[in-house]
Each structure stands twice: as structure tokens, then as C-alpha cells.
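F.,

This is the one I mentioned.
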């Protein structure tokens, strides 16, 4: 059985909307798109490369898929990002979409039927782990269904006040173990959490 790993940029107050630029998602009158850009540094790049060092297949929501598909196939050969581009361009991409006829990026495949059922089927198959970047709407649905095995959260030292958040009120109650945590010179926390069963409760005596 393969894992589903989610990598997400998140603010201190849990917002994940439009981290890389204002054009990504301005819905709800969100005006702070691009809030991760001032914190970009080598440490964050190293964490991403470590995440991509193991075999993976991409599992993406439609919005993130469109952003990736408009960028990665067109990375110049002499770019520092060329190695990552080659990985993304070649791996199998599973896409949550209602517009399957427009999946033009190489090796892209739509998820059919109920989303949670489709992910359960993928997890039961042999193969590389499923890796999700962004795709907040899809991830919230999968957190509600208990279908996220690992969270790779990059927590930025900003409060955004409003915007789409990672965790909804319908997220399935779950315990996680903090496996790794480091900080960048700019104050970004790079964390890795793995699912660890049900939430445990108690009473202080």
C-alpha cells in the first residue's frame, strides 16, 4: 500500500491561498497572493529536493494542475529548475477534474468517480507514493476522508487574516507524529508529520 503525502505552504493562521503569486487564486477578494516569495532561500529548495528524491506520482487538484502544466513543460534547458521539470514532466499525474479532455500535459490521467474512492483505489495499488503539492480544495476533501498519510508543512511567519485554509471543520480527527522540524534563516518552519492513529485524550489529575 502506498502513502499519500501532502506538501503545503501555510501561514501561521492556517491560510494556504495563492502563496506563489496574486494570479494563482484571488477569489474571495484575496489580495495577498505571493506571500511566500520574500522568504525563498536555499534551505527551502533543499527541502523540496529531498522530498523529490524518492519515487513518486503526482496527485493534483485542477487549479494546481493548470498552474504546473503552464510552467513545467516550458522550463528552459539551462534553468536551475530543469532537473525538477524533467521529473514533473515524466511522472504519472493523477488529476481531480471535471474537464478530463483538457489534460494535455504528458502522462496526465483524470480521477474518475467519487474522489475519495478513487484515492483509496490508488493507495491500494503497488507503485510509488502519491505526492500532492498545493491543491487545497482537494486536500481538504481528503483530510475529511482520512486519506492523507503524511503532511509536509512549510509554516511561514505571517498572519494573513483571511483566505482559504488548510483544515476545515470537517477534517477527520487524527493524531500525527512530528518526525522532523527545521527552520530557515527567514523563520520558515519546515515540518514533516506522519499519521499516528486516533486522537488520544485524558484528564489532568
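My design for it:
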Amino acid at each position: 500500500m502506498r502513502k499519500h503525502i501532502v506538501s503545503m505552504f501555510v501561514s501561521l493562521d492556517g491560510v494556504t491561498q495563492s502563496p506563489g503569486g496574486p494570479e494563482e487564486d484571488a477569489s474571495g477578494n484575496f489580495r495577498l497572493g505571493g506571500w511566500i516569495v520574500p522568504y525563498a532561500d536555499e534551505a527551502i529548495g533543499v527541502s523540496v529536493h529531498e522530498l523529490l528524491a524518492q519515487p513518486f506520482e503526482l496527485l493534483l487538484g485542477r487549479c494546481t494542475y493548470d498552474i504546473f502544466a503552464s510552467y513545467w513543460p516550458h522550463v528552459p534547458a539551462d534553468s536551475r529548475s530543469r532537473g525538477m521539470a524533467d521529473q514533473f514532466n515524466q511522472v504519472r499525474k493523477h488529476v481531480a477534474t471535471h474537464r478530463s479532455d483538457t489534460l494535455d500535459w504528458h502522462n496526465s490521467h483524470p480521477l474518475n468517480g467519487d474522489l475519495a474512492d478513487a484515492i483509496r483505489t490508488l493507495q491500494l495499488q503497488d507503485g510509488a507514493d502519491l505526492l500532492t503539492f498545493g491543491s487545497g480544495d482537494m486536500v481538504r476533501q481528503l483530510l475529511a476522508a482520512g486519506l492523507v498519510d503524511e503532511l509536509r508543512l512549510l509554516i511561514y511567519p505571517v498572519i494573513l487574516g483571511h483566505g482559504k485554509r488548510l483544515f476545515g471543520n470537517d477534517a477527520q480527527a487524527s493524531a500525527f507524529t512530528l518526525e522532523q522540524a527545521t527552520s530557515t534563516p527567514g523563520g520558515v518552519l519546515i515540518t514533516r508529520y506522519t499519521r499516528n492513529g486516533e486522537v488520544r485524550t485524558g484528564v489532568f489529575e
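Helices lie at 42-51, 62-71, 82-90, 115-124, 136-144.

Talk soon.
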